[in-house]
Amino acid sequence: MYKRFLKTLLLVCPIVLTGACSVDEEPTQASQPRTESSTPTQGQKPEQAQKSARDTDVDSKKNKSGAIPTVRNHPIKETVEVVTAQQAADVVAREKGKLGLEGADDGLGIEGHTVDELGNEYYQVQQTYKGLPVFGASGVLEIEGGKVVVISGSWQPDIELDTNPGLDSRLAIHRALLASGESEPFSIEFVDTAGLVVVLAAGETHLAWLGRIRVMRGNMHGFSGRVMVNANDARLLLKQSDIAHE
């Protein structure tokens, strides 16, 4: 259940956090890979727009600001055929160093696959650190005519983080809710099993618990939505109500 929830969250709506979000505050969305850069401008043919996107190589400068970079395109210059998910995974693994992900703990994994009406294929790519997903750091590997064209996405280099949590998910979330104004007594009901993610928020890299919960007061429901909480000090990084987005 958590894996399906997280996959939807990271790949469908990648989000960059700049600080703690309240229940009424929508996190900033990262640009969608390829879509914006391949949209023709006035007087520009679609094929010209696609070519200009592919000719925009990745700026692999190290990002020291503590924020995920904007979406960039990394064209694959050699001819590489891809017909399976494993071949796609091999391509992104080989190219990750050129995207600024040079550490042994940095990874790129394939998380999904779609095909458009023209037969072009798109493999969704998720950045990981020590096997954990990096929240908001995702992209797309595009295949045209069976050949790799470009990897588009937002990536976070230079992560250094202990991925052993100091607090379990229930305790961390309980403490975070208390600090955010919830009053005792209350209990937490997990709608989706909370899982660990690596996230950049307020200029820092955090190990965090991410999950969807309900706050219960006896038989009464309180807050219901998703939360992200630092797994060591219980700082609340995200609190987003389901009600606000129905």
Fold topology:
Elements: H1 2-12, E1 15-16, E2 28-29, H2 46-54, E3 72-75, H3 85-95, E4 106-115, E5 121-129, E6 132-144, E7 147-153, H4 169-179, E8 187-190, E9 195-201, E10 204-217, E11 220-230, E12 236-241
Antiparallel strand pairs: 1-2, 3-7, 4-5, 5-6, 6-7, 8-10, 9-10, 10-11, 11-12
Describe this structure in words.
The protein is elongated and about 60 Å long. The chain has about 250 residues and is an alpha+beta fold. Residues about 1-15 and about 20-65 have low confidence and may be disordered. The protein has 4 helices and 12 strands, in the order αββαβαββββαβββββ. The strands form 3 sheets. It has a 5-stranded antiparallel beta sheet with strand order 3-7-6-5-4, sandwiched between helices. The chain has helices at about 1-10, 45-55, 85-95, 170-180, and strands at about 15, 30, 70-75, 105-115, 120-130, 130-145, 145-155, 185-190, 195-200, 205-215, 220-230, 235-240. A hairpin with a 2-residue loop joins strand 6 and strand 7 (about 145-155). The chain folds into 2 domains: about 1-30 and about 160-245, Nuclear Transport Factor 2, Chain: A; about 70-155, Roll (Nuclear Transport Factor 2, Chain: A).
